[in-house]
Structure formats: structure tokens, C-alpha cells
Amino acid sequence: MKLDVRSLCSRLPTYFSMVYSEHVFSEEMRLIRPLLEVEGEEEVNNGDVASVIREEFYSFIEQLLEGRDAGNLRDVLKKYADWAISQLDRVGVEK
Amino acid sequence: MSLNICMLLWEWPPQLQGGLGVHGYENSRALAKLGCHVNVITRFAVSSPVFQKEGRVRIYRVPEKRVVMTIPFNDFRAFLSANLAFNIAATAKIIELEKEKRLDLCHVHDWLSAISGLSVKEALGKPMVFTVHSTESVRSGERGIESIRELERLCAEKADMIITVSNYIRQEVMKIGVSEEKIRVIYNGVDSRRFKPASEREKRKVKNKYKLDDCRVVLFLGRLDPSKGLDYLLRALPMVLEEEPETKVVIAGQGWLEPMLVTLAKLLGVEEHVVFAGYVPSNELPALYSTAEVFVSPSLCEPFGITLLEAMACRVAVVSTYTGGIPEFVKPMENGVLVDAHSPDQLAYAITLLLQDEALRHRLAENGRKTVEKDFTWEKTAMKTLKVYEEVLESSP
User: Where in chain B are the domains?
Assistant: First the structure.
């Protein structure tokens, strides 16, 4: 699946407006589903999901900080990304 | 002191959903009027430029470039992934801004921008102010997400100072182990130059649009979600109609609960007396408020309740509930009426009382306007916020 983060950021209703329940998740995410390009989902799901996501985010961080003198920010961001990724499977509604 | 502030906001117009966005927008503008340079970093919005300048407020929308990721999908992953991507992109933008002009501090709003504020604090030692508009426990009770609670706890612990929008939220933050000395309560405000009683002509336009001629209008405005207690308002309506048969309840706003509310109105046999107005553009709001004889906010849980202040500013009598931050500014029988949450009977009594007692209605409405003008302006909110910034910077190494 390919997730266009820029489109996603622009269309997601704020979390603040929601009561997180399975119903709400399904309803709110229904709105953005047409924006998501599904590709190779089966393959990914058979692999190590967290590793795939981590790789995507690490590459995103590198891309944004490329050529910048950001001290240890790169490592700090990766640490928080790791934490966030570790939370992804704690709650959720499977498709 | 002319400060350079980085305001990290998940919401910014045109993406306004609740109190966080309104507060962020109005407070940023008011801080700019006090001489601060406010750099807002918010999420990308379709049809909005990635950079905008409004006086001393600069708005940066991130991510700026199309980013496509391969992510195994489910709803929770997608939401958190989008939020994480926003936080990473926001952090990169802060680095860029720091090079151009030294930022004095970062101001985080709720958990949604916490990762960015935390990263910058940890890597660059930048002071961080954390405004808590609500908490996961307030929003979702026991059904809330532990990961979000963890992020709130971490952000509260690391922040140099915490601002809460009411004493009620202050108590909630203290429950997660934050010391009282670190918290300042700064109430939301309302723009009383914009929110004021509308002219007869403007009211007529609204009445025509929503077919409210010869009706007694009772208004609700807000998100249509369970925390707003709208089912109790609908259950109160048959009792109100027994006394005041010309009443119409206007429910303005959007939310996933709408189809269920439509069904409930039908089941109660009051569908002819309920108007679902949907999204109302911001420039029409003062006229809509002014058309109402009574504004009702039947919330079951409310960190603050900005719409009540807006209605009061438009000189409309308000009915609400003894819940959350509401009793901190709605004083029973002084500038409004408060009833117990979850009580259709009490709501019906209060609405009927105000519809029938014109003198009382006018007195409460008049006092409501005075309350707003005296104590709830964005200028006051900004002045208190600036004081917090100065306090933080004075104690920073």
C-alpha cells in the first residue's frame, strides 16, 4: 500500500474532534481511503511490519534533514519514531 | 520584549475542528499584536499555500513535498503515521527557521505536536511550553489510547511550563503527576468585535436560509459526537414543544453522530422541529447565534466550551451543564442557566423557562455579553501567554 502522507495530513479530521472507537476510526478513515494507493500489501503483511514502517520513516527523516547541521536531532527523531512505531500495533482496526 | 515563537499546531484555518484550532489561531494573532513574531507550523492543507504571512504571523504548512510511503494499512496506523510524518516534517522546518532567526521557544498544543516539541527540546535545548486543551482521559475515558496518555505524560514532564484552558483541565493534568507550580490556567477568549448581536437584516437572511420564520429558535453549534450530549437535547424537545409548540432546534455542525441523531429525532416524532444545518461558514456564525433565543450546549464532558462564549458575546441566553470547565464562566442565573448533564427533564425546564420569561432571558443575555467583554478576550489570553513565555525564558539557562 502506498500512503500519500501529504494528502493524508490535509484530509484527516483532527483527533481532537473524535472519540476513538472502532466505529469512528472506520468512518473517518473511510474518507481518506480513496487517496491511498494499494500496492504490494500482501507481501508487506507477510514480512516484518514494524521494520518496513521504520525503514520508511528513517528514510523520510534522512530526506528532510539531508545536508543540514542538526546536531543529534537525527538520532532523537529516530528514537521518537521508534517509539511511535512500537505503538502502532497496540490499538487499531484491521481492514 | 519581541519574542520569536514557534507555534506547533495540528489545526489552523481552513482546518478548524475544535477549541485547539480556534485558540491557536486567535492567540497567535493576539500575540503578534503584542509584538511577538509567531511562526506557526501546521499540517498541509489542500488549496492552501505552504507559506503565508499575516502581519507578524508566519504560517508554514508541512510536509511541503509529496511523500509516498509503503505502509501496511489499518486506520490507527494510518492516523498515527500521518501524525508522525507531520511531527518529523515540523521538526525539520524548525531547524530551517532556527538558522534564519533564532527561535526563543516552541509552543506545543496537545499530544498532536508533542513529538516535534520534545525532539527540539532534547536535541537543541529549546524551551517548551505545552498547552493542554484536553486530555485523552477527558476525551475518551477508559476507552482512550494508552500510547497517547504516555505521550501526554512525557510532554507534561519535559515541558518548562504547562498552560491549561480551565481549572478542570488543570486538575486532570495534576492527576498524571505534574506539580501544581508548573501549571498556569489561561482561559480561551472570544473576538467580541466579530461576535456581536447581528442586525435584523442579517438575522432575516439566516431565518430564510434555514426556514425559521415564525419560529422560536433554540441553537446548538459544535461537533456532532457523543460527548456533546445532543441526544439529551432531542429527548428534551417533546417536553419543550408541549409548552412552546413553535420551537425549532437548529443543530449546526458536522460529525459522525448525525445519522443517528436524525433517526432519534424521527423516533421521537420531532423531526419537523429539528433543523440539521451542517457546516456553517465562520462569517455566518454571528448572525446564526443572534437568530437564537436560547443557545444550548448539553455537553457531557467539556474542557472549556468556546461556543458558549461566542453565544454570550452575541447576547444570547445560554443553557449548559455542570460539567468540565463550563461552570468556571457560566454562572447560574447570572449569565446563563446550568443543569445536570444527562438530564432531558432539566434541559426542557431550563429551555422553556428562558423561552417564556423574556425579562430573565434578556438579563442573562446582557450579563453574558458583559462577562465576555470583561474577562474573556483574546488580548487577555495573549497577555497571559506572553507572561508565561517570559517566565520560562527568565528561568532558562
Answer: 4-189+377-395, 200-375
For residue B119, the chain A residues in CB contact (below 8 A) are: 73, 76-77, 80
CB of B74 within 8 A of CB of A78? no
In a domain, A95, yes or no: no
Q: For residue range B195-210, list pLDDT tens digits in order.
A: 999 999 999 999 999 9
In this predicted structure, what is the pLDDT of residue A94? Answer: 37
Residue A16: pLDDT band by 50, 70, 90 thresholds?
very low
Q: Contact B44/A81, CB-based, under 8 Å?
A: no
Residue whose cell numbers read 497571559: B384
- Interchain proximity A6–B67, CB inside 8 Å: yes
Do the domains B4-189+377-395 and B200-375 sit in the same CATH topology, yes or no?
yes
For residue A21 the three cell numbers come to 472507537
Q: Give this complex's ipTM.
A: 0.83
- The rounded distance, in Å, linking the Cα atoms of B124 and B133 is 26
B137 has a chain A CB within 8 A of its CB: no
Is the peptide bond preceding residue B63 cis, with omega within 30 degrees of 0?
A: yes
CA distances B4 to A9, B35, B53, B62, B383, Å, are 26, 9, 15, 19, 15
